[in-house]
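Appendix B. Chain record.
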Amino acid sequence: MSASIISALAALAGSVIGGLTSVLASLLAQRTQARVQWIAQEKIRRQELYREFMEEASKCYIDALQHDKGDIPALVNVYTKIARMRVISSPKVIETAEQIGR
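Structure tokens predicted for this chain:
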């Protein structure tokens, strides 16, 4: 093989390696960014659920202080929120929410 062919093949190999490296870095960056966005969305979703739960539980508590009978539809809403928490929350959060529900 002549030196010009070896030089051309080396340049071609370098270009291919550089291009693949660039594509790989881009894919990793996009994957990381997508994961960060997903985590942020999940956090917002949990915070919204916790806020709704606290509002419902507070309403039930105030109602219980004012009346002798429980407000069944409001209690159903509280237990619905607890059920949703079971899917996305830790066991400690669920345990605490159940204590509040009782």
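Further analysis of this model is presented in Appendix C.
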